Amino acid sequence: MATKKTPPRPASAPVPPKCGPCDGTGEVPVTVHVGRKRRAVGQQAGICLACFGTGEATTD
Ligand SMILES: [Zn+2]
Fold it and tell me: 36 alpha carbon to ligand 1 midpoint, in Å?
């Protein structure tokens, strides 16, 4: 009774599209500003808001 049905697989596995802004890394460099003049003091890694850190482009 335990018949397993395996769905037919496509010949090539679908590769998720790579996110553009972060180049698939899920992180983007964010410039850190301080002070009233908003002087840039450096950069830190921030989560990519385009893919929310997944590195995969959303298809919506
Ligand atoms: Zn991204």
Answer: 30
